[in-house]
Design a protein that fits this description.
Elements: E1 17-18, E2 43-45, E3 52-62, E4 65-73, E5 82-88, H1 91-103, E6 113-120, E7 126-133, H2 140-147, H3 153-172, E8 175-176, E9 185-188, E10 192-195, E11 202-203, E12 210-211, E13 214-215, H4 222-225, E14 231-232, H5 234-250, H6 269-279, H7 289-297, E15 315-319, H8 326-335, E16 339-340, E17 350-353, H9 368-378, E18 384-387, H10 388-396
Parallel strand pairs: 15-16, 15-17, 17-18
Antiparallel strand pairs: 1-13, 2-3, 3-4, 4-5, 5-7, 6-7, 8-11, 9-10, 12-14
């Protein structure tokens, strides 16, 4: 979309596309026009606001149309002198963007829609136009590519939380965005992020979600791409925001973040855990935008050891590297009256912690099992963490 260098963005690797969806006989194709829909110096008029706009140059194109830098002609207190004009030959995406432009008009983190109008061409065809706020620093992918470095963690937390405020408003209204990509997040003055492009937003009639037909493969969850999860849910929007988090920290938005590279991100272990929670196992993600905002803004709870006086009757799991074989530890726990689990679950009451594995997913306290303990604790499950030395003392006592 907006590119201050005046060069069209290359969307060929990340444009919105469709995939076959079970149960759907036909999915509409999202084709990108091969020709320019507007010409430099062309003047268009809005029958809605009676304002005129002069087209300067094309900025980019995507699955739903083309975007041009434009100047407002004449006076207006509502529309700034420099804007973007988004043009499409399709009415459906235009209607949605115009509608959500009104719904989010006062939100400081949403790209503003100043004007929405149809334009009749001389050949009788109709173009659908939106006059949008111009993001002077371009979209997030182009901005990171130019700067070549990631953002400071405090800035990342603040700016992503701002984007999540827009997403949270949608989620509370049972709406799903489905297109949270670095091409639809824009960098305004002061490196302030704003969310734009609501052409794929859909209403969900129930908590099961909506059919995942149209999507952007750059940040769509692998569960959706592979067809393992046929319906898009709020936690899939959260997955996309997790990708944005990782990209901002890494300083590169050209490729998706993999879980295997999270531990190498230049940020705190707590933020690594948040990213992993977003893009890791689907059922363990933050369920809504509001949950993720809370995680970004609160201080992490300490993962300290608890007090345990007996192993009898406890449901126990192990994590980390033990000084003795895991099989021997499990046998000793059973002899002491414990029920041993392979991994922490909602039934687990005690976790024995050995030395941290240096290859843990998200830092010293960011092993998969430790992250699961924290998630379960957030949901009210009481889990006592004990060190290996205390475990062997308890296991050595006779029942």
């Amino acid at each position: 979309m907006p590119d201050p260098l005046g060069e069209p963005n290359d969307l060929s690797a990340a444009t919105t596309r469709t995939r076959p969806v079970p149960g759907l006989a036909r999915v509409r194709s999202l084709t990108v026009p091969a020709r320019h829909l507007m010409a430099p110096a062309q003047v268009i008029a809005s029958p809605e606001s009676f304002l005129r706009y002069r087209i300067e140059r094309i900025l980019g194109e995507g699955g739903f149309g083309q975007v041009y830098l434009a100047r407002r002609l004449g006076r207006s207190q509502a529309v700034p002198p420099v804007i973007c004009v988004k043009v499409s030959e399709r009415i459906d995406g235009w209607l949605r963007e115009a509608y959500f432009g009104q719904v989010l008009d006062s939100h400081p983190r949403a790209i503003r829609v100043y004007d929405a109008f149809p334009l009749l061409r001389p050949d009788g065809r109709v173009l659908y136009c939106l006059a949008l706020e111009y993001a002077s620093l371009g979209d997030l992918r182009a901005h990171l590519h130019r700067s070549g470095r990631g953002w400071a963690e405090l800035t990342v937390r603040r700016e992503i939380a701002g984007i999540l405020e827009v997403l949270g408003k949608l989620h509370r209204g049972q709406l799903l965005h489905r297109d949270l990509t670095p091409l639809n997040v824009f960098v305004c003055e002061g490196r302030r992020l704003k969310l734009g492009d609501f052409g794929l937003v859909r209403q969900q009639s129930d908590r099961r979600g909506i059919e995942a037909g149209s999507l952007n493969p750059l940040t769509a969850p692998s569960d959706i791409l592979e067809g393992a999860a046929p319906k898009w849910q709020a936690r899939d929007d959260v997955y996309q925001v997790g990708q944005l988090l990782g990209m901002l920290v890494k300083g590169d938005a050209r490729e998706r973040i993999r879980t295997s590279e999270i531990r190498r991100l230049p940020c705190s272990d707590n933020l690594k855990e948040i990213v992993h929670r977003c893009i890791g196992e689907r059922r363990k993600r933050y369920q809504t935008a509001d949950e993720l905002i809370e995680a970004l803004r609160r201080s992490p709870a300490p993962l300290g050891a608890g007090v345990l006086r007996t192993l009898k009757g406890v449901h126990l799991a192990f994590t980390g590297i033990l000084s003795r074989r895991r099989r021997d530890a499990a046998l000793a726990a059973r002899r002491a009256g414990a029920v041993v689990h392979g991994a922490p679950s909602a039934r687990t009451t005690v976790v024995v912690r050995g030395r941290p594995n240096p290859l843990q997913a998200a830092g010293r306290d960011g092993g998969l099992k430790l992250m699961e303990i924290k998630r379960l604790r957030e949901r009210g499950h009481r889990i006592t963490l004990v060190g290996e030395r205390r475990f062997w003392l308890l296991a050595g006592r006779r029942r």
